[in-house]
Write a structure and sequence with these properties.
By secondary structure, this protein is an alpha+beta fold. It has four helices and 14 strands. Among the domains are: about 80 residues; about 80 residues, Beta Barrel (Thrombin, subunit H).
Length: about 280
C-alpha cells in the first residue's frame, strides 16, 4: 500500500498532465461541435431564404401550369354556351325534308382565347390594360375582353406580341347593356374615381329598377355576346334629366386583382360591319 502511494507521489505530475490532456481534448471536441453548429446555423440562415424562394418559385410555376389548364377547361366550357351560337334553319334541307325543320342548325358566332395581364392601371382618369398576346396570336382590334367574374373591356390596339385594352374604367368606354329582369337597354359608362363603380344611362324614369338587379351585355353590338355579367344595381335615383334614372352599378370585375382575361372574337364581325357601313343616317 505504501509503495502504491509513493508511486502516485513520484508520478503525480504525469497523472495531472494526462488528466489535463483528456479535459483539453474533450473541450476542443465540444468547441469544434459548437463551431460546426454555429456554421451550420449561419449557412441555414443564409441558404434557407434562397431555398424557400426557390421552392415558392417552382410552386408558382407549377401553379401557373395548373392555372393555364384550368383556363383551357373554362374556355372549353364557355365555347359551348348558348350565346356563342346562332340558330339557323337550313332552308334547302327544310324544303327537301320538312320534318328536319324541327332541328335547327347551330352556327358558331363567337370563339374564345385567353391572355395574361402584364400591365394595368385602375386609379387614373384614363386607365389601360396590356396583355401578353398580339396579332401573331390571333388578337385583333375590337375583340371583347372578359374575365371569370365579368366584363373587362375592348381591345383597342394590337402589336405583334402585345395588345392594349380599354377597360370599363375609361371615359371612352361605352357598353350596351340590359337590366335584368326587365330587359331594358341602356349604356354602361364610367365617370372616374372608383374602380368598382360604373353607371347605367338611358333608363327611363318610369321603370322599376331594384337593388341587386343584374346588368348584362345586351348582345346588340357585334363585340359582346348577350348575357355577360357587367355588374349589379347598387343605387337608383332620378337623374338631372327627370326623364331618366341615374343608376349606379357595382362592377363584377375586380380590376385590381385582374391577372387572366378571356378574349372573344366575333367570327362574322367584318361581314356585319360591311352591312352597317351601308346604313344611311337620316
Amino acid at each position: 500500500m505504501n509503495n502504491l502511494i509513493e508511486f502516485f507521489k513520484k508520478n503525480f505530475h504525469y497523472f495531472l498532465l494526462a488528466i489535463l490532456l483528456v479535459v483539453s481534448i474533450i473541450m476542443i471536441g465540444k468547441s469544434m461541435a459548437y463551431s460546426k453548429y454555429k456554421f451550420a446555423k449561419v449557412c441555414q440562415n443564409m441558404v434557407g431564404p434562397i431555398q424557400k424562394n426557390w421552392a415558392e418559385m417552382i410552386h408558382r410555376f407549377s401553379l401557373g401550369k395548373e392555372n393555364d389548364q384550368l383556363t383551357q377547361q373554362n374556355i372549353a366550357l364557355m365555347r359551348e354556351q348558348e350565346n356563342m351560337f346562332i340558330e339557323k334553319d337550313d332552308t334547302l334541307r327544310h324544303m327537301m325534308t320538312p320534318t328536319d325543320s324541327l332541328h335547327p342548325r347551330s352556327i358558331r358566332l363567337y370563339d374564345y382565347t385567353y391572355a395574361h395581364v402584364i400591365y394595368k392601371t385602375t386609379d387614373q382618369a384614363f386607365n389601360y390594360i396590356i396583355i401578353d398576346k398580339g396579332s401573331k396570336d390571333g388578337i385583333s382590334r375590337d375583340m371583347a375582353v372578359t374575365c371569370p367574374k365579368g366584363v373587362v373591356g375592348v381591345v383597342s390596339d394590337v402589336s405583334e406580341n402585345f395588345s392594349s385594352i380599354i377597360p370599363i374604367l375609361h371615359p371612352d368606354s361605352r357598353i350596351s347593356a340590359i337590366v335584368s329582369p326587365i330587359n331594358q337597354v341602356g349604356t354602361v359608362v364610367w365617370e372616374g374615381n372608383d374602380p368598382q363603380v360604373a353607371y347605367l344611362e338611358n333608363i327611363p324614369q318610369h321603370l322599376e329598377i331594384s337593388l341587386g338587379d343584374s346588368v348584362i351585355t345586351s348582345g346588340f353590338s357585334n363585340i359582346f355576346p348577350k348575357g355577360l355579367l357587367i355588374g349589379t344595381v347598387k343605387e337608383v335615383a332620378v337623374g338631372k334629366n327627370a326623364s331618366f334614372l341615374t343608376i349606379k352599378i357595382k362592377l363584377a370585375t375586380d380590376f385590381r386583382r385582374l391577372h387572366t382575361v378571356y378574349l372573344l372574337e366575333n367570327l362574322y364581325k367584318s361581314e356585319i360591319d360591311t352591312l352597317k357601313a351601308n346604313f344611311k343616317n337620316e
